Amino acid sequence: MKTIKVLLSSLAFLTAASLSAAAATSTLTVAMSAQNGSGEVGTATLTQDGSDVKVVIALKGGPATTPQPAHIHDGTCASLKGVAYPLTNVVGGASTTVVKGVTIDKLLAGVFAINVHESADNLGKYVSCGNIVAK
Ligand SMILES: [Cu+2]
Q1: pLDDT tens for residues 45-81?
Q2: CA 11, CA 56: separation in Å to the nearest integer?
Q3: Digit-coded pLDDT (tens) for 115-127
Q4: How far is the CA of 87 from the centre of ligand 1 (A)?
Q5: Which protein residues have their CB within 5 A of the ion that is ligand 1?
Q6: pTM above 0.70, yes or no
Q7: Mean pLDDT taken over the chain
């Protein structure tokens, strides 16, 4: 009888552990839409890597060599607030950044958007943006 009780409690523990593991988001694709007639569209792929999140931006339609500043901002694309996490400049449509000490689930729990600016000289012009939301 005691053996059965131990077995049952072990099962309950294992079930709870696997449920919490399944709940953590390991990857998320954010659709990046063109803004202000830029034609720059693509994706930002977020991948959980331990306690960090790798952000890979891939855009088409942008300049070949002009560096384009990119950030994770508070707010939505329709109403961007301040910079929450800086990202590596997009060059030739590509940018990879490891954002330290954050989880995809934390980003999903808040209100955040990834945006790209035309250039360092023209930060005020937004050329691409995607809201960080679950599919
Ligand atoms: Cu920005």
Answers
A1: 999 999 999 999 999 999 999 999 999 999 999 999 9
A2: 39
A3: 999 999 999 999 9
A4: 9
A5: 71, 115
A6: yes
A7: 89
Q: Tell how far the Cα of 130 is from the centroid of ligand 1, in angstroms.
A: 11
Dist. CA 26 → ligand 1 center (Å)? 24
CA of 73 to the centre of ligand 1 (A): 6
Domain ranges of the chain: 25-131
Spacing, Cα 48 to ligand 1 middle (Å): 22
CATH code for 25-131?
2.60.40.200
CA nearest neighbour of 30 among 69, 2, 72:
72
CA of 128 to the centre of ligand 1 (A): 10
Strand order, beta sheet including 94-99: 79-90, 68-76, 112-119, 122-131, 27-34, 41-49, 52-60, 94-99
